[in-house]
Amino acid sequence: MERKGLLLVISGPSGAGKGTLCRALLKSDPALSLSISVTTRSPRPGEVDGTDYFFMEKDSFEKMIKDGQFLEWAFVYGNYYGTPFEFVQESLRLGKDILLEIDIQGALQVKEKFPEAVLIFIAPPSLSVLEARLVSRGADSKEEIRKRLSSTAGEMALARQYDYVVINDKVARAVKNIKAIITAEKSRPRLFKI
Amino acid sequence: MERKGLLLVISGPSGAGKGTLCRALLKSDPALSLSISVTTRSPRPGEVDGTDYFFMEKDSFEKMIKDGQFLEWAFVYGNYYGTPFEFVQESLRLGKDILLEIDIQGALQVKEKFPEAVLIFIAPPSLSVLEARLVSRGADSKEEIRKRLSSTAGEMALARQYDYVVINDKVARAVKNIKAIITAEKSRPRLFKI
Q1: Which helix (H) or strand (E) holds B38?
Q2: What is the number of CB-based contacts under 8 A between chain A and chain B?
Q3: What is the CATH number of the domain that holds B125?
Q4: Which of A157, A161, A165 sits opposite B187 (nearest CB)?
Q5: Considering A9, A67, B43, B89, which has the largest number of Cβ atoms within 10 A of its Cβ?
Q6: What is the pLDDT of residues B24-50, one digit of tens each?
Q7: Which ipTM did the prediction report?
Q8: Which of B104, B187, B192, B194 to probe by mutation at the A interface, max A CB count within 10 Å?
Q9: Domain extent at residue B72
Q10: CA dist., res. A174 & res. A160, Å (int)
């Protein structure tokens, strides 16, 4: 029986703690590696092409969009960001597990293009816990936090379209849950040649 | 968020070690309980109605078949055996996880009637390991073992219709895998009221 890698998509409302979970996951699972995005923004000091990002000219990026070469892409503050399908598929073929941390719209794009992707919705324990986190982070104004909380309520409904929901009440428990999901997904019949 | 129980169906070719795995699972997961079958055979000494089986007259059993009250049923050596849908659903509603150990035909019947059931195919590491197990068990003749191995090869193809495949090379590892599957399945969006 021959195995292929998994594409694990970690997503959910802002403030749910996706970033912290992903860092903890990458640390605890050496078989897992982060997907490398393509971007048209300029490299920042210390960023290495092919490690932090694949840096690319706008024209080439737009050609890749036209050719359907992205699993998902977005245009943010004047720059393109995208996940290259070819790179992900090649990594999976080599048996690597790939971790992708993206927003909800991006995650649903990925599932549409690549149904084998495993979508995990990271949920805050409750809206009031999320509010407390956003307040203590101190990055947003009261008005921004109010807006964000009301959009979160809507985003929570999209969890139904995910494969799994993990409540991020405690990081260690959430990481354990995600690792169980990886183990379970590696037991799917499609990953075996029987 | 409110949780419901899981129906876990453990199945696979004879000799794959389903019984051993189920006993180990029940021992290590107190939230899990074995499904109680209905049967028309007479109680053996020590067997308790409602614990070992629900004992029932043939007429009542056949009426339950007609009324579609079984998740699966079979007629074996002159007696009926079946899994009562109502009992399983009530247990799940109460949040209990139910374990059902049945043959492949039964498992596929369950999935058809109750798609939320989680089907786990227990596979022997290889046909040669299975052969060695059957020989050392000493319960079957050479001819019976040959027949069984050839039917196993066909049964392995049915693994594709299962949700998961767990290779029973080592009991502890297989139990760990199944427990990861339980954890993952408890993270399904349909089990949450969001």
Answers
A1: strand B37-39
A2: 82
A3: 3.40.50.300
A4: A165
A5: A9
A6: 999 999 999 999 999 999 999 999 999
A7: 0.84
A8: B187
A9: 7-191
A10: 19
